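Batch job 17 of 40 flagged for manual review because the log was empty.
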Amino acid sequence: MTVIDDARVGGTPAQTRQNPPAGEGVPRGGKSRRRGRRRRWRRGGPRAAAYAALDLGTNNCRLLVAEPTAHGFRVVDAFSRIVRLGEGLGRANQLGEPAILRAIEALKVCRSKIDSNGVVRARLIATEACRAAVNGPVFIERVERETGLALEVVDRRTEAYLAVTGCANLADPQADAVVVFDIGGGSTEIIWLEGMQSSGRTEPGERVRAWESMPTGVVTLAERHGGAHVTREGFEAMVADVGALVAGFAERAGIAASQRGFHLLGTSGTVTTIAGVHLALPRYDRRQVDGLWMTDPEVSEVIDHLLDTGYDERVANPCIGRERADLVLAGCAILEAIRRAFPSERLRIADRGLREGILMTMMREDGVWRGGWGT
């Protein structure tokens, strides 16, 4: 089982929610009841035995089910599947039927896990693909009709705050500034986080100095430039595209890179893949990746190595595989643009983020750590 400690530092300001959190809790109507066949999961009461966080992104569908412990939570079930919901979105501006079917099948698995674990509070969010697609609202209605899950389409600010809440406890406590980034399938969130000591605050949401959500991610960038066969010239073109998007944020937050102890903190499939390749893992192992520090030359070495490998070699790498082989270099290009805008000697890898941020926020709202939960 995975145990996340120090979850009490989490917290997303309530004002970051644009709409009522429709993906939380127990059935419609706000009253708690025993599980039924077609229960709709919505906001519910405190002191839940198990919590669930679902993130339906442009590329992945991910679920975590966890129970509170004394100072954090214990993951009791999890699910992750690449569904590529945003496939072709940049060209057609709508979700395609094959992608919708893949997502719904994955969501049915999530529903089954939520039911079987006795979850009584959940938050189920959808991000960039559903925000951008003209048929996003129709898709959300179809998901509820076919799975009983009521997805909440969150705004970009909420997504950024949840991501930083989930991984901020990996920031160096001695650093006066950290730039946190989350490279997604359809968008990339980047946040300037003030240090705990310099700010005098512990909650991540209160230490955000600036943030930006860039409308590009590994799926959209790879579809625009090609991801299976990438030359160094093509890679630089991708970096330039992202660099233009990150320039405005760099103007506002560039001073962060000059502050004491500054480092980058990345949470995404891109950075965890880079870490796995760096460690030459025979298979991906979260225990070795989450919290890993990489130096700037080590990151450059992995990116150079991946640029020198062909598509088939990337498929054969156990930390990449067929599902990521055509996306990983697009992710590297986004990372490279961030590294050039915010030079840093260190990058910390987080295999935690948005879902953990959701869980920590719900548990803090319910006061579970004040209630004497045991480990």
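Reviewer: the log was empty due to a logging misconfiguration, but the result itself is present. Residues 232-253 form the longest helix (22 residues). Unflagging and moving on to job 18.
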